[in-house]
Recover the amino acids of this structure.
């Protein structure tokens, strides 16, 4: 019940605005009907003006409350929102779900898609809670690939390095700067494309830097550059298939940007680039965060 109340509070502006619109529509229709059937005919002649006014106010309140209840039910059961449509008629959606689920786009009937996974800028593949945490999306995705025997850490690393061989790197680190893993650090927003199956291609996007303590971090300027480069990469390599992405930057990459601000930034960046968007984009908010963020009115 507490979570439900929290979700209502997060969505209250949207719910109340929808209730106002619905109430306005009801009384607009009522007004049109009264042209042909005057409301005075519904009252006895002895009913005073004050009583009629009171009845009118009660009618408005009742219709508004009913509209608010209906709007609340629809809103709180809604898991998906279309934010805008690009110049090429492709849409940007935001919805609650599990980005690791193979049915993440089941509602759209899409079978093939591209999945964006933010990783560190050295594109490490060893999930050991030292170099890569099992709790991060980076770690969960790679560990799943290893558990299903689709890749090994060494094999995936080789594929990713081959995909990156033609990309400009930023620097080559020393062991003192980064004690473990790959030492070639690429620019923020560099993407390694890995085909998992006929239906799924991973876009591993370099975002965070690891320091001498193997702690990940990313500045706001690096984050902005990374998102722009990702959008440009999707324009070149999505092949028109949907791009699915998490709310990038709210996990262990430590951008220090709260989730709602991050979502709004992603949408703004996509909106600015609406002229080059040639596929549908799906921003997935973890389904357990429904009481933390609203996907309405973004």
């Amino acid at each position: 019940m507490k979570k439900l109340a929290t979700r209502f509070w997060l969505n209250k502006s949207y719910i109340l605005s929808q209730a106002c619109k619905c109430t306005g529509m009801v009384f607009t229709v009522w007004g049109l009907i009264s042209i042909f059937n005057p409301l005075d005919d519904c009252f006895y002649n002895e009913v005073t003006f004050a009583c009629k006014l009171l009845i009118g106010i009660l009618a408005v309140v009742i219709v508004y409350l009913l509209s608010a209840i209906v709007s609340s039910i629809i809103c709180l059961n809604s898991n998906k929102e279309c934010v805008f449509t690009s110049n090429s008629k492709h849409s940007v959606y935001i919805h609650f779900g599990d980005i690791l689920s193979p049915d993440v786009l089941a509602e759209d009937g899409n079978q093939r898609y591209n999945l964006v996974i933010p990783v560190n800028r050295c594109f490490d593949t060893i999930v050991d809670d030292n170099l890569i945490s099992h709790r991060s999306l980076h770690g969960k995705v790679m560990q799943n690939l290893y558990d299903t025997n689709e890749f090994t850490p060494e094999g995936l690393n080789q594929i990713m390095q081959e995909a990156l061989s033609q990309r400009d790197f930023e620097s080559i680190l020393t062991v003192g700067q980064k004690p473990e893993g790959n030492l070639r650090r690429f620019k923020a927003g560099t993407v390694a494309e890995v085909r998992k199956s006929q239906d799924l291609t991973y876009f591993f996007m370099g975002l965070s830097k690891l320091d001498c303590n193997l702690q990940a971090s990313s500045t706001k300027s690096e984050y902005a550059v990374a998102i722009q480069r990702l959008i440009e990469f999707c324009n070149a390599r999505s092949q028109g298939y949907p791009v699915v992405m998490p709310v990038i930057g709210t996990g262990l990459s430590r951008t220090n940007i709260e989730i709602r601000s991050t979502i709004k930034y992603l949408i703004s960046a996509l909106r600015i680039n609406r002229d080059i968007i040639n596929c549908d984009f799906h921003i997935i908010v973890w389904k357990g965060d429904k009481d933390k963020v609203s996907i309405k009115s973004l």
